[in-house]
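Minutes, structural biology subgroup

Action item carried over from last meeting: produce the structure token record for Chemokine interleukin-8-like domain-containing protein (Cyprinus carpio). EB confirmed the sequence was re-checked against the source entry. Recorded below for completeness.
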Amino acid sequence: MQLNQKMMMSLAAIAVIMLVMITGTNGQIFNRPIECCTSVSDKEITLPITGFKLQKYNPPCVNAVIFFTTEGPRCSYWKASWVNQKIQELNSKSLMNKEWKFLNTKMPMCSLLLRLETKMNSTDSTPLSTASPHNSTSA
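Output recorded by EB:
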């Protein structure tokens, strides 16, 4: 009788430990997301797109670009010709928003104009920094 009771207690303890492990990882077992793209489409999305994220291969998940639309996420083939163009478009919109926020800061006008001129003449696509040129600490 004591053996059965000890065995039941051991099984209960194991069940509790497993439950804690699963809930402690937000439901992710073996570092896998709960929801992911397991298949993709190369068809261009016509819905308004509000953002995107890249998903890496981690079975059962596949390499994908997840576009967030007004009707929910859509899984797209990352090598589709339109996908790269859409990512660049979304990134440029994001850059424009960052630059607009930068323009609304209380930075001295001469410093602001110098930064804008530098940005316009620059060939790289890095966004403008909002750090003051008089501040020696980096963000």
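Discussion: The chain has a mean pLDDT of 73.
Next step: EB to file the record with the rest of the batch.
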